[in-house]
Amino acid sequence: MAICERFASCDFFRRYKYDMEQRQYEFWVATYCEGKLRPQCKRLKWLTEKSETPPDSLLPTGCLIGSEAIFYE
User: What is the mean pLDDT of the chain?
Assistant: First the structure.
């Protein structure tokens, strides 16, 4: 599967790439940007539904960094 068309401009990955461990970063990319869960990415959903850039700290899962609670479904 090809990488997400928004990957190069995704604020989450641009901002937090160097704050994460390399293994963690690669997991997110492989799972949500290149993998089977791309259609479930809450960052893409936010962008599509609200026509605005999601918060930088919104994970592809819908949680905010540092929280296990769902912020956006």
Answer: 91
